[in-house]
Structure formats: structure tokens, C-alpha cells
Amino acid sequence: MRTETSDPSPPEPPGPPPQGRAARRAAQREAAASRTGPAALITALVVLLGGAGLLMLLAPGGPGAFTGGDAGPVLVTGGASASLYRSLTDALADAPHLVHLALEIASEGSVIALGLLLLWTCWSALRRSDARTAAATVLAGTGTLLAYAASETFKLMVDEERPCRAVSGADPVAACPPPGDWSFPSNHSTLAFGLAVGLSVLRPRLAPIALPLGALAGLLRVAVGVHYPHDVLAGFTLGGAVTAALVLALTAAAARVLAPLLERWGPRLRLVRQTDAAVPPVTQGRRRASRPVAPRAENLHADPHGDHYAASASGRSVDGGRDGGPPQGTPPH
């Protein structure tokens, strides 16, 4: 005789549900943000110093160009940068007017597109209450504006004349800026690459979109004839270095400040309320179950076949009893 024994130990309580891929990535980002320390500060410092050194090498006349002076505007008429400028502008000089117009629009629109992409990233992070990404987007925008302010200062220090006036025989696509609006470094390139690098640091999956778009913005400034190639490279260096350094150094601290605010105000930024999201949607196209409606007695008439009765008013047939005969309570034929 077989006896069955039961386990006296109580069943284990169910564990927490497994996290999805998005939840795991969010947890990893939060953990990485909380561990940010001296390494991030050292990296930011190296990026900033490296960018400053490269900017001095790209300046016409080297580091001495930033000391200023009363020597007058700097004219760059020879060298690799002026040769590339002349080759590109000569190739586009005979293009149709619509091509010129498209180049000018794309030169401005690429910077606007990067700015809108940064705003969209910030808004989506606020809706998800993602403090780290939201803080990084704010820092990326701030770093881009700081780099732009620095570029305006360097313009006044270097005093490099625009190539559309310095290079003989230049035929720019766009109108040449007025005298006193100096060329080094390129403001558009500073803004474009500052936004592109900021987006790439805070969201690496956006790098294949942001970095080529930022590079295109700088190339178009040369194509329309208002900047040398070295002006564009200097703008890339300035915008990228300042923005990357700021995002790397301050994202963790800014996220800690922003997290309590998102916990309080984050639900109000969502487009769908939590109460509405908890209600299951109504299935479209589902028919509501209804009870069978029996035909009225006065609308019934005998079928000459004698096996069922038909309802003349509704046109629906009513089956007979279990044996296929007439319903109960009606006389047979």
C-alpha cells in the first residue's frame, strides 16, 4: 500500500516580476549616474584642455592670435584651408539658383533640427521622470550656449576676415556678412556640433543621426562661401569640447537635484492620466450578447411542410421541439 506524504513547509511567496529591457536599462543608467565621481571630472578636464589646445592650433597665426592687437584684420589668402574653400565655392558657383537656395536653407535648418531634437529628448525624459537624461539635456543646451558665447569672444580676439572678402575672385552662394563680423571660429558650427555632441553623450543611440547632421551644418557654411574649413573645425572643437565637458562633469549632480522635482511634478507632464490608463479599452466591433426573442403568437402561421413554424413579421424561423415537431402547446396538423 502506497502512502503519500506532503511537504509540511509552506509555499514560498512569489518573487517580484522580472524587469523588462527598458527597466533594466533605466536601472543601469541610474546606477551609473550615482557612481559618477572623480573619473568623470578628470575626463571632462582632459576634454576641455584638449579642445583648447586644438583651438589654438587651428587659429590663424597660432596661439598668438588670441593675444589681440591693433594689427588689423587677419587675411588668409593661401594655404590648404583657402585652397579647399576656393575649390568648393567654384564648383557650386554655376549651380542653379534653386540649389543655392536649398544650400542656404539647409545651412540654417540643420542647426534648428538639432535644437528640436534636443528639446524632444528633454520632453520625453521629463514625461518618463528620467532625471538623468533630463538633466543631461539641460546641461547640453547650457554648454552649447556657453560655447557660442566663447566663440563670439574669440572672434573679437582673432579678427579674421571673411573668406568672401579676403580670397580674390571668391563667388559665394550666400551674401557676404558685413565688415566687422569676423570669421574665426564659425558660430553655426559651434552651435551645431555642441548640440550633436551633447545628444551623443547623453543618448549614444542618437549619435548616428546627430553627429552627421552636425558635420553637415559645418560643411554647408563652407559651401555657401562664408567660412574657411579651419573656421568650421574650430567651431566643432569649441562646441564639442565645452558641451561634452559640462555633461560629463555635472550630470550626476544635476540629476540628484532634479529627481525630487520630477517625483512631485512628473505625473502632471504626462499626456495620459494614470486613471485613464488603468481602464481597459473597449473592444471595437464586439457584438453584445442578447437573449433570443420569441415571435409573438399572432405572427405565427403553420408551415405547410409541418416540421417548423415561421414568423411572418420578422422573417425568422423558430425551430420546433426536440423531436423536430411543432413547439409545445401548439396542436399538430
What would you say about this model in short?
By secondary structure, this protein is mainly alpha-helical. Helices cover 56% and strands 2% of the residues.
- What is the helix tally? 10
Secondary-structure arrangement, i.e. CATH architecture of the domain at 38-59 and 76-271:
Up-down Bundle
SSE pattern: HHHHHHHHHHEEE
CATH structural fold name of the domain at 38-59 and 76-271 = Vanadium-containing Chloroperoxidase, domain 1
Derived structural class: mainly alpha
Reported for the largest beta sheet, the result is: 3 strands, antiparallel
Rg computed from alpha carbons, rounded to a whole number of angstroms: 37 Å
Beta-strand segment tally: 3
Query: Helix content range of the residues, please?
Result: 55-70%
What would your notes on this structure say?
The protein has 333 residues and is mainly α. The chain has a domain at 38-59 and 76-271: Up-down Bundle (Vanadium-containing Chloroperoxidase, domain 1), CATH 1.20.144. It is built from ten helices and three strands. It has helices at 21-34, 38-58, 80-93, 97-127, 131-158, 163-166, 187-202, 207-223, 229-265, 274-277, and strands at residues 300-302, 309-311, 317-318. It has a three-stranded antiparallel β-sheet with strand order 1-2-3, with no helix packed on it. Strand 2 (309-311) and strand 3 form a beta hairpin. Helix 5 runs antiparallel to helix 7, helix 5 (131-158) runs antiparallel to helix 9 and helix 8 (207-223) runs antiparallel to helix 9 (229-265). The chain starts with 20 loop residues before the first helix and ends in a 15-residue tail after the last strand.
